[in-house]
Design a protein that fits this description.
Elements lengths: L1 H6 L7 E4 L6 H12 L7 E4 L6 H11 L13 E9 L8 H4 L3 H19 L8 H14 L5 H7 E7 L1 E3 L2 E3 L17 E6 L10 E7 L6 E8 L17 E6 L2 E10 L6 E8 L8 H11 L5 E2 L1 H19 L5 E5 L30
Parallel strand pairs: 1-2, 3-8, 4-14
Antiparallel strand pairs: 2-13, 3-9, 4-7, 5-6, 7-8, 9-10, 10-11, 11-12
Helix pairs in contact: 2-9, 5-6, 5-9, 6-9
């Protein structure tokens, strides 16, 4: 950034930055200060290609263009929203970058928090850059700050050990070329957040990303609460509805309960819609926006800082080893479920259980 200052940019210049934007809140604030001395905020494009993915955009389309969804898009009807980016890919020769960053900074702090914003935001007046980004910042500001107790009970970190993923043998992360085991870099990160707002108080938001897993799972899964009463005598066998936005590959589906083949019996049904192929890849859409001077899908300065505010307590607690570094075999489903005893402020644990995606 200092070099750009010395270069004396011509009028009308635009600056494009790829994530991560800084290493922490203080670094992001310093970068924003330097950028503000160079060009107007509208000329700064902190790009995140997730925002231009067709299915990510469809989260807004499905919510805001359908009367059937928006009235129930709140904590009264939704118990938990999972935002997941699990992949079978392991390190794949990226140690030079990844070993200095890890899953939390690489995926959760930017991509998954952006998805959280679109899922949880209030309906904007327009999709223009000010209206859309104002509502996204509102979401990040409403995230309840995590205490050390919260981080210990609501976050997990792990790294893969050796195993078999698909048709290939994967070495343990610490044995990958270029990895320094002393850095204790995680390849799996999960955090559970809550929003202090009228719409979302009482709903869990689970953000999770991992590498070297047994299968790809890349989706936003909206878990609705159970119905208050069933007259079928099968209450224990009925699962709540789940609306799934598949991110890669792109898909849209709803898990529903319907009457089975016998009278007064219920069965599970998945309604799936085929998605049209995007006219442009995500980066193509972002490049058009840069060339056209439309920053609506770029990250605004205050938004970048608020995202770091959300994850900084996690980074701090992890550096102090308040959360153990778990391990999971490459090719597995990740670290095994952790059973936690409810305690002070751990109010999410007494909520109704959410069924796993593949159960």
């Amino acid at each position: 950034m200092t070099a750009l200052h010395e270069a004396a940019l011509p009028p009308g210049s635009r600056i494009v930055l790829e994530k991560p934007f800084g290493e922490d809140l203080a670094g992001a604030q310093e970068l924003n200060r330097l950028l503000a001395d160079l060009v107007p905020e509208r000329a700064v494009f902190r790009v995140d290609h997730f925002l231009a993915m067709t299915t990510v955009q469809n989260v807004l389309g499905s919510r805001l263009a359908n009367r059937v969804l928006e009235p129930i898009w709140n904590s009264t009807h939704i118990a938990e929203i999972e935002i997941v980016w699990d992949e079978t890919l392991a390190l794949e020769g990226r140690a030079g970058y990844y070993d200095h960053v890890g899953a939390l900074k690489d995926m959760v702090q930017n991509h998954l928090l952006q998805l959280l914003c679109l899922v949880a935001m209030e309906p904007p007046l327009t999709l223009g850059e000010r209206d859309l980004r104002d509502r996204k910042v509102d979401v990040l500001r409403s995230v309840r700050p995590l205490t050390d107790f919260d981080v210990a009970h609501r976050t997990r970190r792990a790294r893969y050990s050796s195993g078999r993923a698909g048709d290939r043998e994967v070495p343990a992360y610490v044995d990958e070329d270029g990895v320094d085991a002393r850095r204790r870099t995680e390849t799996f990160a999960e955090i559970v957040l809550e929003l202090d707002s009228w719409r979302w108080t009482g709903t869990r938001f689970r953000l999770r990303s991992g590498k070297g897993l047994g299968k790809d799972r890349k989706e936003v899964a909206v878990h609705f609460r159970s119905v208050p009463h069933l007259p079928f005598g099968q209450d224990k066998d009925v699962r709540p509805n789940v609306l799934r936005f598949g991110l890669e590959p792109e898909s849209l589906s709803m898990d529903m309960t319907v009457t089975g083949s016998r009278a007064e019996t219920l069965t599970q049904l998945a309604l799936t819609a085929e998605m049209d192929a995007p006219a442009l890849p995500a980066y193509g859409r972002l490049l058009l926006d840069v060339l056209g001077g439309d920053p609506a899908l770029s990250i605004r300065s205050d938004e970048a800082e608020e995202a770091w505010r959300v994850v900084e307590p996690v980074l701090s607690a992890w550096e102090r080893d308040l959360v153990p570094m778990e391990e999971y075999p490459a090719g597995s489903d990740g670290p095994p479920p952790r059973h936690t005893t409810p305690g002070r402020r751990d109010d999410l644990l007494h909520e109704e259980a959410v069924m796993p995606a593949d159960s």
